[in-house]
Design brief:
Helix content is about 30%, strand content about 25%. With about 170 residues, it is α/β, with parallel strands linked by helices. It is globular. Bound molecules: guanosine-5'-diphosphate.
């Protein structure tokens, strides 16, 4: 048997309003880079990252929305067979914070309940925050998701988000 056969391919989504940092996060996590250039096209539907969690070999395929965040414009193919999801909002974008629950509903309507994690990105810009710490924590409590503050720019907590999500996934295997 080839080693590949032991690997679990996992389709992971990152959802959230435009410009919260989804593409940047995928590039940071999968390629180790961060660019300022706005909305570059990754050029493929997803990037991959291999990791080993609790003795299981995972191959995360992390799908980008490719600028189609406008509600309902994401195709069924984007959601199909997704097995884990990062829900993201931005520290400096109140609308993105208020859209979190509708993104979760959208994912659950398409693929049912899957492991999820909530992130507040751009925490390097906390001085300009459009929501209080208490509001963000209250949201996480209400929707019962583990909550991370991240900065893709500073490479803060990015690995931790995917590590945690992968552990949730493996626990359900
Ligand atoms: P997407 O539309 O959600 O995929 O967002 P992008 O990844 O295209 O990011 C939108 C903008 O936010 C880009 O200019 C990024 O460089 C910037 N950005 C992403 N993450 C961070 C972060 O953690 N901190 C700051 N300050 N800017 C970020």
């Amino acid at each position: 048997m080839q080693e590949e056969d032991l690997e679990h391919p996992v389709k992971v989504l990152i959802v959230g309003n435009g410009a919260v940092g989804k593409s940047s996060m995928i590039q940071r996590y999968c390629k180790g880079i961060f660019t300022r250039e706005y909305k570059k096209t990754i050029g493929v539907d997803f990037l991959e990252k291999k990791l080993s969690v609790k003795g299981e070999e995972l191959r995360l395929m992390i799908w980008d929305t490719a600028g189609q965040e406008e509600f309902d414009s994401l195709t069924k193919a984007y959601y199909r067979d997704a097995e884990a999801c990062v829900v993201a909002f931005s520290t400096i974008d109140r609308d993105s914070f208020e859209a979190v629950e509708s993104w979760i509903k959208k994912v659950e309507d398409e693929v049912g309940r899957i492991p999820m994690v909530l992130i507040q990105n751009k925490v390097d810009l906390i001085e300009e925050a459009a929501m209080t710490k208490e509001e963000a924590e209250a949201l996480a409590d209400r929707i019962k998701l583990k909550f991370y503050r991240t900065s893709v720019q500073e490479n803060y907590n990015v690995d931790q988000v995917f590590q945690y999500l992968s552990e949730l996934y493996v626990d359900e295997l």
